[in-house]
Amino acid sequence: MKNKLNVLHLTFDMRIGGTEQVIKNLVSSVNKEKFNVSILCIEEPIGPFGEQLIGTGIKVDSFQRKIGFDFALIFKIRKYIKQHKIDILHCHQYSPWVYGVFASFLSNTKIIFTEHGRFYPDSGSWKRQLVNPFLVFCTSSITSISKATKRALVEFEYLNPKKIYVVYNGIALMQSNPEMVSRLRLEYNISQNDIVFGTVARLDPIKNQTLLIHAFEQVHRTNQNCKLLIVGDGDERDKLEQLSVELNIAKSVTFIGYIAKPADYMDLMDIFLLPSLSEGTSMTLLEAMSLRKPCVVTNAGGNSEVILHNHNGVVTPNGELQPFIEGMLQLVNNNDLRNKFGENSYNRFMNIFLNQTMGNSYMDIYSKISGK
Question: What pTM does this model have?
């Protein structure tokens, strides 16, 4: 008699990104005595997160999807499901869901679909309106990572809201190294009197760091002790560096580059900023909360569900510069408010956004849909 459920996560790949980090955290947090977990990527290479998981003993396999709709991929996935006796196929994002449903059709494998985020600006299509009822019919459970994402599934994918459950992303509690933080303070010439703003994100138009730099320039005029740390890399880097030069704030803006484990850099920050135009549930926002950081964010996607306005941060209208400036100014000269919001961030994180909380929610769904 088989005691464990075989759960296969079907995704694009395991590169470094929000969806991939959720999968990484999820396979690491489930009860290994009850579930055998593995990952199948429909694109190659599998990426750094996949390589890391292989090193921990998690099985990660991949196929190379062809351009366009790859009918042969359906049969490859179907063969894989049968060969590994998969009980539950957890599909992450829309395309893996489509392939997963067709691959498991008329089998005993149960399907769960998780939507991790949406494109900006969002839109629907008549093709999806036709095919989605079939996908839903074949799917045992649908989850989204925020209420905002759920609303998008209803509006643009025409899904029944009663069939969609919200399961917030979760991460492990981040911990910094005080010795390394002190060393970084010296390296970046950060004094005890400086107020450090910071963000961690890929440098991409959707993350709207252009607004962030313009906002910082205005705040810097009122307080010359303000500094800005930007952790991350991407196609926008040259443009953003040039903008800081044009605004005469280059000496106060530091581009750190990509850091795999940014806890020590985040601990340098007094105030965390996230001006994105679109978000699901930002993993870096959760990381900042776990390090007791007050946050200023735009009302994009799940941001306002993670940051409660005037509780653990400030939420400003999406894409608007002046309110973002005012949110930064609200915190820059008020140490007591920063401390209050920071403690509220930590408490909210511990109550809602811990990795194990997310893992428990999905394990309950796996057990429910499998009847075990």
Answer: 0.91
